[in-house]
Amino acid sequence: KAIYAPSGFAAIGAANALIAMDRKDVVLCGWDASAEEVALLDEQAVDCMIVQQPTVMGYKGVKAAIDILKGAELPHEIVDTGCTLVTYENRLDPEIQDLFSQFFTIE
């Protein structure tokens, strides 16, 4: 049994529902990385999170806008900005902590 929550709000809601029902038999995978979601991951109420790369997304978006303003014609293609699977086991890795810092201030 598993739940994929396609937004931070959905992940938080699903985690709280699973906690209220004492359902430890359901795997919960969330999306993105709010401070509340990371706290739920720390508590193992969320099993994993798929985290976007906001810095890469912003950089590529601004670069494309500048290129268009300079007269460039951009190819019509999907731009993969990447994502990272974060689990309880890897959540404290330096590269994961750096990724979290793009979403919220780590205290």
Give an overview in words:
Helices cover 41% and strands 17% of the residues. By secondary structure, it is an alpha/beta fold. It has a four-stranded mixed sheet with strand order 1-2-3-4, with helices on one face. Helix 2 links the parallel strand 2 and strand 3. The longest helix is centred in the middle third of the chain and has 16 residues. The chain starts with a strand and ends in a 7-residue tail after the last helix.
Q: H/E series, N to C?
A: EHEHEHEH
Shape: elongated
Largest beta-sheet details: 4 strands, mixed
Structural class: alpha/beta
Quick check: average pLDDT?
Answer: 92
Short description:
This protein is of the alpha/beta class and 107 residues long. 41% of the residues lie in helices and 17% in strands. The protein has a 4-stranded mixed beta sheet, covered by helices on one side.
List its traits:
107 residues, alpha/beta, four-stranded mixed beta sheet, 4 helices, 4 strands, 41% helix, elongated
What is the element layout, followed by pairings?
Elements: E1 2-4, H1 8-20, E2 27-31, H2 35-42, E3 48-52, H3 54-69, E4 83-87, H4 94-100
Parallel strand pairs: 1-2, 2-3
Antiparallel strand pairs: 3-4
